[in-house]
Amino acid sequence: MSEKTKARRAALGQALVDAAERGVVAGGLASVKARDLAAEAGCSLGAIYNVYPDLPTLFMEVNARTFAELDAALSASQDGQATPREALVAMALAYLDYAEAHTNRWRALFDLELPDDPALSDWYLTRLRGLFSHIGRALAQLWPDRDRAEIEMMTRTLFSSVHGIVLLGLERRFSNIPPEEVGRMIRGLLAEI
Amino acid sequence: MSEKTKARRAALGQALVDAAERGVVAGGLASVKARDLAAEAGCSLGAIYNVYPDLPTLFMEVNARTFAELDAALSASQDGQATPREALVAMALAYLDYAEAHTNRWRALFDLELPDDPALSDWYLTRLRGLFSHIGRALAQLWPDRDRAEIEMMTRTLFSSVHGIVLLGLERRFSNIPPEEVGRMIRGLLAEI
DNA sequence: TGTACATCAGTGAACGCGCGTTCACTGATGTAC
DNA sequence: TGTACATCAGTGAACGCGCGTTCACTGATGTAC
Question: Per the CB < 8 Å rule, is B184 touching A114?
Answer without folding.
Answer: no
